[in-house]
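Field log, afternoon session.

UNIT: design team B
ACTIVITY: writing a sequence onto a fixed backbone
BACKBONE:
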């Protein structure tokens, strides 16, 4: 772990990071880690409504801040497994929102640029993973905050069954619904973190444990009809998915409407009413407007909503008699920051349309990338299952991302007809030459890293060049599946000193990828310390 490079990145992104440990402390912690531990040396981020000893917990509100004496239990489990906390990440204030645009610390953009929102409320955690600063991150998820940011940044988001990850040491949003969530660049890493983080905590009254048998070949349902809010690109992206059975998701969507349009908004006041009353000016106007709607509900309203939710939950339970997993688009459409500013509350409801029912109906969920729309916007799918089906969902997510198994998105296309290609620069998502992959039918598998034996250079041509070097480091990259029939004409467009060769990954495997002839490094700028092309570009040409 390059502590100085990580801290440089953190300090350069105040919209993503609220606080962090210094390089000397990070390096000292790394040196003390037992390499035999399951998460040895992996840097991770923590959403700033989860306690980390020695760093302030702000929940996105400076006047609310306090410094905890101990780690939240879920953080401590990860530290005990060898992972290293880098710092605390930005969020929609008090975890109220799905946009990533409701924080006094700034509004981070999606890693895909173009003014696209990062999604919330776990905005900073998702971006910190997607841009390669950390290997994984903790967020929270009440209405979709562990899934919407994953969708908008092209990474994996795990929303466990409620209570599997302890919420002790977490600033509550809706205490009865809150979950700690996990962001990772790939499903295997997310599952690895999940296995360490889960477990009952006796002091946590909401903590619980349970496990359903893993279903290796689950029956996957898809909705009979969906609203994509006029977004033909997202509709086409989801249309590539082939489910086993069409089902009615009307009861689920009705349940989701109860979260922000029903008395569960008042539950947010159970923990924030005193602060909101004493310091109203400390709360952002849009956050305050959402919270204050809770004052309009009566106790009778709360009971009526609970009775209706019970009926809807019974309908949802009957769904699992026909299918094992439900697949939905994580979000029906995407928004830019300027679009969110025009209708912050209305567009927030749109983002949560296919996420906010999950905790009310006691479901587990895993979000995975689903390539891109034709206009370059990220697409995503979320797999839902009943409570404690987390292992089946993790297995399905891993299978989808595996190089050896046909992706569920492309069941009609044999996996042997594709080549997995590693890209490090101008062919990355959203970069200048990414269209050369999209035009040839390539689909994004996910983010990854090279083994620690490469150096990255900024060549005189303006492109980056990856050179194998024993003194090198691990470099961020993306894996794409390119139709084998299109590899030849794709290669024809690659000029020297670049070529395709075998690239070693940090998990011990090798894939085909872009490499640069060593001679081209002479006189080129060594940008290895940045960790990747996107990090380097975000710092500016003089970094």
């Amino acid at each position: 772990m390059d502590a100085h490079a990580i801290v440089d990145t953190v300090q350069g992104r105040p919209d993503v990071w609220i606080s962090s440990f210094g390089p000397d402390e990070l390096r000292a912690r790394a040196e003390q880690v037992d390499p035999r531990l399951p998460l040895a040396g992996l840097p991770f981020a923590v959403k700033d409504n989860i306690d980390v000893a020695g760093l302030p917990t702000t929940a996105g509100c400076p006047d609310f801040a306090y410094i905890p004496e101990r780690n939240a239990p879920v953080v401590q489990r990860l530290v005990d497994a060898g992972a290293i906390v880098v710092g605390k990440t930005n969020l929609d204030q008090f975890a109220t929102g799905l946009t990533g645009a409701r924080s006094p610390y700034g509004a981070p953009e999606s890693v895909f640029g173009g003014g696209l929102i990062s999604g919330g409320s776990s905005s900073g955690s998702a971006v910190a993973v997607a841009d390669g600063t950390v290997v994984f991150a903790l967020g929270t998820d009440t209405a979709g905050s562990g899934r919407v940011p994953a969708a908008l940044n092209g990474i994996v988001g795990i929303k466990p069954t409620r209570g599997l990850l302890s919420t002790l040491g977490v600033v509550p949003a809706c205490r009865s619904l809150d979950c700690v969530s996990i962001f990772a660049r790939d499903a295997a890493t997310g599952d690895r973190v999940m296995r360490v983080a889960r477990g009952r905590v006796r002091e946590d009254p909401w903590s619980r444990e349970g496990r359903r048998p893993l279903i290796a070949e689950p029956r996957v349902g898809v909705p009979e009809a969906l609203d994509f809010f006029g977004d033909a690109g997202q509709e086409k992206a989801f249309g590539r998915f082939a489910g086993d059975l069409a089902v009615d998701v009307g009861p689920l969507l009705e349940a989701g409407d109860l979260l922000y349009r029903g008395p569960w908004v008042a539950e947010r006041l159970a923990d924030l009413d005193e602060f909101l009353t004493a310091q109203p000016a400390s709360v952002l106007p849009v956050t305050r407007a959402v919270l204050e709607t809770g004052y309009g509900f009566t106790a009778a309203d709360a009971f009526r909503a609970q009775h209706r939710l019970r009926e809807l939950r019974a309908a949802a339970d009957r769904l699992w008699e026909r299918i094992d997993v439900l697949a939905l688009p994580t979000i029906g459409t995407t928004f830019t920051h300027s679009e969110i500013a025009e209708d912050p509350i209305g567009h927030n409801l749109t983002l949560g349309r296919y996420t906010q029912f999950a905790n009310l109906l006691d479901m587990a969920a895993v979000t995975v990338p689903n390539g891109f729309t034709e206009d370059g916007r990220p697409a995503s799918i979320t797999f839902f299952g009943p409570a404690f089906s987390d292992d089946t969902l993790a297995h399905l997510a891993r299978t989808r991302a595996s190089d050896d198994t046909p992706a569920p998105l492309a069941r009609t296309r044999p996996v042997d007809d594709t080549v997995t290609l590693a890209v490090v620069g101008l062919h990355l998502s959203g970069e200048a030459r990414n269209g050369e992959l999209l035009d040839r039918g390539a689909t994004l598998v996910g983010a990854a890293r090279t083994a620690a034996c490469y150096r990255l250079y900024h060549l005189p041509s303006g492109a980056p060049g990856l050179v194998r070097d024993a003194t090198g480091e691990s470099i961020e990259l993306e894996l794409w599946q390119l139709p084998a029939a299109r590899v030849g004409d794709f290669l024809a467009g690659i000029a020297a000193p670049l070529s395709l060769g075998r690239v070693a990954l940090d998990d011990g495997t090798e894939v085909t990828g872009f490499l640069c002839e060593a001679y081209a490094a002479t006189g080129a700028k060594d940008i290895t310390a940045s960790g990747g092309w996107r990090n380097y570009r975000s710092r500016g040409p003089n970094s």
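LOG NOTE: Residues 3 and 23 are 5 Å apart (CA to CA).
NEXT ACTIVITY: expression trials, pending approval
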